[in-house]
Amino acid sequence: MKLLHLDSSVLGPHSVSRQVSAAIVDRLRQSTPGLDVSYRDLALTPLAHLTGSHLAASQGAAPEAALREDIAAGQAVLEEFLAADVVVIGAPMYNFTIPSQLKAWIDRILVAGKTFKYDAQGVHGLAGNKRVIVAISRGGFYGPGAPTALGEHLETYLRWVFGFIGIKNPEFISADGIQVGQEHREKAVAGALKAASDLRAA
Fold first, then answer.
1. Fewer CB within a 10 Å sphere, N or C end of the chain?
2. Phi, psi of 160 (to 5 degrees)
3. What is the third-level CATH fold of 2-197?
4. Residue 144 — φ and ψ, nearest 5°?
């Protein structure tokens, strides 16, 4: 069984989402003998954002020489995702949504004919055989009923993205209120780590 572990926080060792995603992977390693884990740090080695040249190349135009390496990197990312049985993502909230580094990765895996397709009945996800677990961290509180709930475009966006490609029940472990104060931060991190330790085996 293959597990793909992604982190997208720019905070390095100070990141809550990295701490929780690592705990999720540790839990799955312990509970799943022989688990094959690969790791990608999207902040340390970011993918380029898509440009018109990328889109032209995807339609058959000969890519510019400078673009070929990046296209190959995007293809490698897609193949890495397709090969994974389990995907664990560390995703902090930046300005109410995901980091741009994670968005660049998503743009490389949402590929027609690979992870979704359209027909007369609409869209069909092609990646529904994967388990996705996301460790999210948010500075405030954005749950249902909160005054700021309408500003939550992290979990809601990722649920939609993964649902679009056929993964209907992504799992989320959340650490909320980490910027409210030290007490809230410690409580949120402890709760998220406890949830990670209680995960079922891969």
1. N
2. -65, -45
3. Rossmann fold (3.40.50)
4. -55, 135
